Amino acid sequence: MKAMAIPTNSRCSIARSLEVLGQKWSLLIVREAFRGRTRFAEFQKIGVPTDLLASRLESLVEAGILARRPYREPGQRARVEYVLTPAGEDLLPVLAALSGWGDEYRPTGHGPATIYVDTTDDRPVHLAFVDEDGHAVDPAKVAYRRGPGALED
Amino acid sequence: MKAMAIPTNSRCSIARSLEVLGQKWSLLIVREAFRGRTRFAEFQKIGVPTDLLASRLESLVEAGILARRPYREPGQRARVEYVLTPAGEDLLPVLAALSGWGDEYRPTGHGPATIYVDTTDDRPVHLAFVDEDGHAVDPAKVAYRRGPGALED
DNA sequence: GCTTCATACTTGGTAATTCAAAGTTAGCAA
DNA sequence: TTGCTAACTTTGAATTACCAAGTATGAAGC
Q1: Contact between B93 and A97 (Cβ < 8 Å)
Q2: Which DSSP string do the residues of chain A spell out, in sequence order?
Q3: Tens of pLDDT along A108-121?
């Protein structure tokens, strides 16, 4: 139970997100959480060393991405499992962006291992930039600009 | 000039993307490239140690995200700079997803440092899941599913 | 020709992080 | 009291990151 505080000092929201998510295994643990995994032993299957898994779960809980939830199997002692919080659920676009890019530029030849669907009708959806009316815009026309919170440099 | 090969072995496209992008500083270097930075000395300003910067630039070039381009300032020797390739440009959704999440869940109180705009009319855009007709769908209804390239487990 | 300068890296030493494997803890059951 | 299981800790070696200093290249000025 060591400190492990994650400082939040950058003006850049990408850098701040990466303070939590940029550590090795963090996003893969979140991915497993989206796949319905909740328990230490289940997360372990992705190959993360157990000491790091314990440390990353602690960071993700501290960052509000996962929440500890007690559970008890019949005839077993009480234990804890880890479930996505709303902040964790909102990481789905990050995973979708990474998998979309990986499918396009680092393909395996087996097709995508993950797809994203609208659960109301099971139709596939994908990430896109949309305008204020909710209509997709040409991604080639989208640019990165400085916002109100940007510093000079 | 050492080897630095990046293996691509995972069936998961998120893991494959992270083989390149998950290394420390990689995504921040890409972010700077989107801000128009191209030169070693410019990238250095974000605080990355020079040995890592050299190593990351090499990885990003090897991954096809950046390309080396010779240039020459008047009265100076020929040098190289680093520009985004199409594969690199297509990382914009990854940055947008990370900054969107960071703005919401790790805010600074100064407003977003980065916004994304449609360059045809300068109107703000944001990332969303869209259906095949290009219409935004409720993000709470989107789920992660296994695709054709997934392995059993 | 020799020195100076700027940019783009290397190198060397140290600190921090990651890894694999083994050990620990807590409570339940036989 | 012993064994069992899931969830961690600990240990020590390997890798990676960090910082400061140094090197390489070629143009320009003297």
Answers
A1: yes
A2: ----------S-HHHHHHHHHTSTTHHHHHHHHHTT--SHHHHHTT---HHHHHHHHHHHHHTTSEEEEEEE-TTS-EEEEEEE-HHHHTTHHHHHHHHHHHHHHS--SS--SEEEEETTTTEEEEEEEE-TTSBB--GGGEEEEE-TTPPP-
A3: 888 788 899 999 99
- At residue B9, the pLDDT reads 63
Q: Residue B129 has which token pair?
A: 């899941």
Q: How far is CA A42 from CA A38, A83, B16, B26, in A?
A: 7, 12, 21, 29
- Residues whose CB is below 7 A of strand C: A 23-25, 47-52, 55, 75-78; B 1, 39-42, 50-51, 54, 57, 76-77, 79-81
Q: What's the one-letter identity of residue A120?
A: T
Higher-confidence position of B22 and A73 = B22
pLDDT tops 70 at residue B2: no
CA distance A95 to B129: 12
CB B140 within 8 A of CB A146: no
pLDDT at A2: 37
φ, ψ of residue B8 in degrees (nearest 5): -125, 90
Distance between CA A105 and CA B63 in Å, rounded?
Answer: 9
Q: Which of B27, B31, B128 sits opposite A128 (nearest CB)?
A: B128
Tokens of A103: 């499918």
pLDDT digits (tens, 9 = 90+) for A135-147: 999 999 999 998 7
Mean pLDDT rounded to a whole number for chain B? 89
